[in-house]
Amino acid sequence: MSPSAPPEQRSPILFFDGECVMCNGIVRWLFERDRDGTLHFASLQGETASDARARHSDFPEGLQTFVFLEGDRLLVRSDAALAASRHLTWPWRWGWLGAVVPRFVRDALYRFIAGNRIRWFGRTEQCWLPPPEARGRMLP
Questions:
Q1: Confidence of residue 41 (pLDDT cuts 50, 70, 90)
Q2: Is the CB of residue 3 less than 8 Å from the CB of residue 132?
Q3: Strand order from edge to edge, sheet including 73-76
Q4: Cα separations (Å) of 70 from 34, 90, 119?
Q5: Is residue 57 classed exposed, middle or buried when 0-12, 13-18 and 19+ CB atoms within 10 A define those classes?
Q6: d(CA 136, CA 93)
Q7: Dist CA 79 CA 72 (whole Å)
Q8: Which of 55, 58, 89, 98 has the lowest CB atom count within 10 Å?
Q9: Which pLDDT tens digit goes with each residue over 113-132?
Q10: Model pTM score
């Protein structure tokens, strides 16, 4: 898919806090395990996220959650992480089986980690960038 294609055609997109060190580390980890190159990534602070917020009334305003957008399907928190795992290599793609844990339990743990991530890992001035040959997967 062309890097100039609209975001809807480059889905799925995982949105993340681009200033969070932990979030950038998770994005890098996901990137390295998505051998087919199907996942795209965008900072919640960027223009792709702004465009998505304008198109999706349920798109979160805050920075404390992953947001997974695939076509018109928008998932947040642990559901977003589980959906992203479906695009990874084996054995990581089996992460979606975490859905057997009730959402309120998964999201309680997610919120606890999200609420402490900056204190534990800190902030960075810029997002992690993939190698030049794959930069089209990192959206503005």
A1: very high
A2: no
A3: 73-76, 67-70, 13-16, 40-43, 138-139
A4: 16, 21, 31
A5: exposed
A6: 23
A7: 15
A8: 58
A9: 999 998 998 888 776 777 77
A10: 0.84
